[in-house]
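Field notebook, page 290. I keep forgetting to write these up properly, so this time I am using the form the group agreed on. The chain and the ligand, protoporphyrin IX containing FE, are recorded exactly as supplied. Prediction of the bound pose follows.
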Amino acid sequence: MSGRHPGYRRSSARGAGFRGTFTPTGAAAALTTAAHLQTRPVPVTVRFSNSEGDPHTPDTAQVTRGMATRFHLHDGSDTDLVALTVPRFVASTPKEFLELTEALRPDPVTRQPDLARVHAFVGAHPHLAEAVAQQPPFPVSYASAAYWAIHAFIWVDAAGVRRPVRYRWEPESGRAALTAAEAATRTAHYLTDELHRRLEHESVAFDLRIQRAEPDDPTHDPSTVWPDHRREFTAGGLEITAPADDQDPWNTQAFNPTRVTHGIQLSDDPVLAFRAHAYAESHLRRSHNQ
Ligand code: HEM
């Protein structure tokens, strides 16, 4: 639990904005009419973050990291893709998420979660055991981690045919992680500082990997993954070139995982639908410095 931090996002409170370009490979064009997945490059803004709602959580903490990407389309509209450094969400439904949040509430004396309560939650929800046990990596760099958008989305082609997909950003330079002991020697802002330093002399790149569902793969449960051997391909390449000129808009605006565009629809995942409300409420409250 992160406590109250007026003016900050309720989750992923500390982050930084960057800009770059997304260039589609064209491999997705037969499967979706989405404008940014055809052939023309589009400008993007990316916000990397730590998942905690406490903006003072150091980069040395073992938390998930976020990568929120906004594609600025040529018709003046935007579409967002919001991803984390773990492939599964910790709950299948909004109700389970609220129950888990309750189970994790720190004990007022020890200020730590009550492990017996967490074990009881997992015992009562055995299908969540793998998701709750995930250990997010300590990335060497924000640019050396993979980021999963977790939910299934539905691509719609020019003939109206619908196909479920999942997204993952894969770092072009490969994944690289620190051990917990190595991470402990880094500074509180090592991830943001490293990316700023690196961008002074080179850009960083990610591939947008698409996983396609087989007919029986579930689309409603973000705590599950599809088998690794499902068909995958690269829909485009992201090149991040510089910090955003002005960080303020990225502190005051909100990403929204349900902000899709023509050619992409939401799946039947109830957590995905719920997020739209949670993000809007968080944005409203922080806009009023609450
Ligand atoms: C019940 C499910 C979830 C809830 C209630 C929730 C809640 C939130 C809230 C309130 C924010 C701050 C929004 C703002 O003030 O702009 C946020 C940010 C974020 N969430 Fe979630 N979240 C959920 C699931 C997820 C999932 C499944 C992912 C990954 C796919 C995710 C990734 C992120 C990221 C990366 C950010 C930071 C976005 C930014 O940089 O502005 N969240 N979340």
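OBSERVATIONS:
- The two ends are 17 Å apart (CA to CA).
- The chain has one domain: 15-90+134-287.
FOLLOW-UP: compare against the apo run.
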